[in-house]
Amino acid sequence: MVKLGCSRFLLSCHVLLCLSAIWVLAMADVPAGQRPGCPAKCGDVDIPFPFGIGDKCALHSGFNLSCTNTSVDGVKKPLKGNFEVTKIILPEAKVRMNTRAISSQCYDPAARSMNYINFGLNLTDSPFWISEVDNKIIVIGCNTLAYMTSSTYVIGCRSTCKNVTLENGKCSGAGCCQADVPKGIQYYHGYFNENYNTSTWPDNPCSYVTLMEKAAFSFNTSYVRSNSSVFDETSNGVVPIVLDWKIDAHACEEAKNTSSYACVSSNSVCVNATTIEPGYLCNCSDGYRGNPYITDGCQDINECLENANACGNGICENTPGNHTCSCNPGSSMVNDVCVEKPSRFPVMPVVGASVGVVVFVVALACACMIQERRKLQKMKRDYFRQHGGLILFDEMRSKQGIAFKIFTEEELQQATNRFSEQQVLGQGGYGTVYKGILKGDVEVAVKRCKTIDEQQKKEFGKEMLILSQVNHRNIVKLLGCCLEVEVPMLVYEFVPNGTLFQLIHGNHGMRISLATRLGIAHESADAIAYLHSSASTPILHGDIKSPNILLDMDHQAKVSDFGASILAPTDKSQFITLVHGTCGYLDPEYMQTNLLTDKSDVYSFGVVLLELLTAKLPFNFNPDVPAHEKSLSMMFMYAMKENKLDQILDVEIKDGDNTEIIEEIAELAMRCLEMCGDNRPSMKEVAEKLDSLRKVMQHPWVQRNPEEMECLLGEPSSMASSAITSAEYFSIEKKAVNDLQSGR
Ligand SMILES: *[C@@H]1O[C@H](CO)[C@@H](O)[C@H](O)[C@H]1NC(C)=O
Ligand SMILES: *[C@@H]1O[C@H](CO)[C@@H](O)[C@H](O)[C@H]1NC(C)=O
Ligand SMILES: *[C@@H]1O[C@H](CO)[C@@H](O)[C@H](O)[C@H]1NC(C)=O
Ligand SMILES: *[C@@H]1O[C@H](CO)[C@@H](O)[C@H](O)[C@H]1NC(C)=O
Ligand SMILES: *[C@@H]1O[C@H](CO)[C@@H](O)[C@H](O)[C@H]1NC(C)=O
Ligand SMILES: *[C@@H]1O[C@H](CO)[C@@H](O)[C@H](O)[C@H]1NC(C)=O
Ligand SMILES: *[C@@H]1O[C@H](CO)[C@@H](O)[C@H](O)[C@H]1NC(C)=O
Ligand SMILES: *[C@@H]1O[C@H](CO)[C@@H](O)[C@H](O)[C@H]1NC(C)=O
Ligand SMILES: *[C@@H]1O[C@H](CO)[C@@H](O)[C@H](O)[C@H]1NC(C)=O
Ligand SMILES: *[C@@H]1O[C@H](CO)[C@@H](O)[C@H](O)[C@H]1NC(C)=O
Ligand SMILES: *[C@@H]1O[C@H](CO)[C@@H](O)[C@H](O)[C@H]1NC(C)=O
Questions:
Q1: Based on CB atoms within 10 Å of each CB, which residue in 414, 460, 519, 711 is the most buried?
Q2: Nearest 5 degrees, angle CA 175-CA 180-CA 186?
Q3: pLDDT at residue 233 in the model
Q4: In the Cβ-directed half-sphere of 393, how many Cα atoms lie within 13 Å?
Q5: Residue of the CA atom closest to atom 11 of ligand 11
Q6: 543 has catalytic annotation
Q7: Where are the transmembrane segments (predicted)?
Q8: Where are the domains of the chain?
Q9: Is the beta carbon of 592 within 6 A of some atom in ligand 4?
Q10: Looking at residues 224-253, what average pLDDT do you find?
């Protein structure tokens, strides 16, 4: 009985909430503000200030639009440059535009060649950037590896039609794939990997890559099942994209000091833009709505009118920016509900009944709240179970002394200041890493992934257990995880000194000696070799790259990010994943077979070695660079073939007596980058080789003391008596070290 009543009550609550939400939405269309004499609309599109059409109508030239009729029907359209603006959303600071930035690759059977059209979008020097929450990189095709490059990123995915079922509305590798847009970019260009082409798919010769509003895209199998360019045609060659804007390049605190400060309305607030570089925009304060960019643009919201339920059964009174609730004389407020005061006169049966009703309602409300809380807890429990939390718990109980903690959501929220922007350490297609401080001032890094696939979900607890047992001084320690959320979060030890990527490519003006580089290379190789040979289950890293090698004080390397790591599969047939990794580091064999092996890690590590040697980026984003210089590995192979290694070496390590060491590292890198995985050395071999080179470096012959030399070479007397050149010495010493190593 009570249960039924409760669910009814809930239902009516929801209906009321829904109704009031509709009401708010309907009211939200406050007329947009303009400067005097400026048009409010162009065609069907509202043009609120800071945007404007015509002289002195926009805040600055970045927001200046033109209004022209481009179609035969005579409807005018607002244009920003060549792009049609379809909607300006002031409170969210977003603008929706149509772009023609679809890159395509079509096979021409007559000419037996591929025709490429590479498009891009360049918003540099404009106040706009590409919203990472509203857009996606979309790739359509049957044998396509396409990617977008930006000033600092290469992100892409691969789609195939071989042995997969294409489904309308599904874009996860079969005929269509998608990738997340990095944060804060203003420029992108779409490309295709030429090794993937549709020459063997005569029935669907075209592939596409574009960056567009994700809500506007739905995959239709006809996009790849037809020989014509259906995708291009259905979209008329234009795709919508959502952009964020900022007023200028000042953060709020600075902007307030400038004469051009744009948040001029009373009751407006300044909001820091979410770009990487500083910037600000304006919003109306809570309780106000309208245009913060014009005087008195922010108007009070009358909550009492808009939300009939604002005060429940009480009396609502609107105030500037808020409202107050009160009760009729004779009743008082108890937990936001007006309750009749007990009368001093003999209690009339009617009053008694009404009090009874009120008490009943209060009791119901409480019951509902408890129910809601139970529901939330149940949800958390469900997620926990789904992610294999119970298995993990059991294991942890049976194996005492596992230093691994299961965190609650609240704990992590507290540690990261509610996942505040200020705590962000890094960000990428996979998700976001936050810096956190646990109770007791323990610094940690909290990784919050964007998505997890169903298969991974079930295995999560088990994987955690295995990863938690990984214990190597050059591997970032996994301290725990949080399973009671939809996508589990991982908690790692905090490594203070940035990444290898930042060390190599950063602008810190520091010279990095060859010894330091070799040390980092050796320690990382050692860590990866440890993972590969891990006693219980070998672990593949799957995404070795310089941004994933963190540095401690003294440049001690710590390999991180097992987000992509996969326990080595026992059943190979089951193991087909979509290519996941980072362009420039991806093993070409993996791209062809879709099979991740320990040799894929070796390949990626080879690229890291090249970065250490050349200080060049693994992938060149510049569209003008010829194809063979785009990827560092190709450029390196070319240089080695032409015997021009020293032309691509980093100048910081070029000079000096280290030519032999450098050549050895280059040779090692070359073996790591062999096309065929079987020909690459194992990670263990790589680590040993680097270790021996490191030892050679640590013992420069000029500073040698006799005992040490004896240990290495056995025959110090002959050395002392005969005059040998440094190069000769070097080669002997190297051989000796190698012999020592292999003798063990
Ligand atoms: C805005 O653009 C129009 C032409 O489209 C130009 O005449 C006008 O000067 C521009 N205004 C500003 C402030 O840049
Ligand atoms: C503009 O609209 C008129 C009809 O109002 C039409 O005749 C003309 O062709 C249009 N201009 C363009 C460039 O399409
Ligand atoms: C502006 O305020 C509204 C309501 O408080 C909020 O929904 C919106 O996200 C805010 N916009 C920005 C850019 O912070
Ligand atoms: C398609 O790619 C293959 C390699 O995967 C290559 O041999 C072939 O020449 C390419 N075809 C065209 C037309 O580019
Ligand atoms: C983008 O445009 C800016 C100028 O607006 C230019 O300096 C830059 O080179 C362009 N970037 C690319 C990659 O074309
Ligand atoms: C694809 O399917 C065909 C027949 O259905 C099969 O012979 C072939 O081995 C499959 N290829 C792969 C890579 O699974
Ligand atoms: C897919 O496209 C075809 C023709 O292009 C269309 O008839 C069909 O309705 C579309 N299907 C969906 C689910 O959008
Ligand atoms: C596509 O296929 C149809 C028949 O299925 C054919 O008539 C047409 O010429 C083809 N178009 C191209 C561009 O190959
Ligand atoms: C703003 O200006 C005042 C005085 O003009 C100055 O004291 C203050 O430091 C400035 N603040 C910032 C953030 O530049
Ligand atoms: C805005 O960003 C600056 C740094 O870019 C920071 O110092 C300031 O605290 C931020 N302000 C707000 C209101 O978040
Ligand atoms: C409105 O008033 C209530 C109660 O005084 C307060 O809790 C709330 O924060 C206020 N809201 C705004 C937007 O000022």
A1: 460
A2: 120
A3: 72
A4: 10
A5: 322
A6: yes
A7: 347-370
A8: 6-16+100-244, 41-96, 252-294, 304-340, 389-493, 500-697, 701-741
A9: no
A10: 82
Q: Quote the ligand 5 centre to 87 CA distance (angstroms).
A: 26
For ligand 6, the distance from its centroid to the CA atom of residue 292, given in whole angstroms, is: 60
Q: What is the CA radius of gyration of the chain?
A: 32
Q: Does 500-697 carry CATH code 1.10.510.10?
A: yes
Which ligand does the CA of 123 lie closest to? 5
At residue 100, the pLDDT reads 85
3-state SS of 153-208?
Answer: CEEEEEEECCCCCCCCCCCCCECEEEEECCCCCCEEEEEECCCCCCCCCCCCCEEE
- The number of beta carbons lying within 10 Å of the beta carbon of residue 705 is 8
Over 60: is that where the pLDDT of 16 sits? Answer: no
How close is the Cα of 198 to the center of ligand 4, in Å?
A: 8
Of 376, 365, 319, 311, give the one whose Cα is nearest residue 338: 311
Length of the chain: 744
Locate 655 and state its tokens: 């000079």
Distance CA 179, CA 150 (A): 14
CATH class of the 389-493 domain in this structure: alpha beta
* Ligand 10 atom having least distance to the Cα of 272: 1
Confidence bin at 526 (pLDDT 50/70/90): very high
- Choice from 168, 176, 222, 223 to test ligand 7 binding pocket (greatest atom count within 8 A of CB): 222
Segment 247-287, tens digit of pLDDT: 988 899 999 988 889 999 999 999 998 877 889 999 999 99
**DSSP structure string for 501-526:** HHHHHS-------HHHHHHHHHHHHH
616 is in an annotated binding site: no
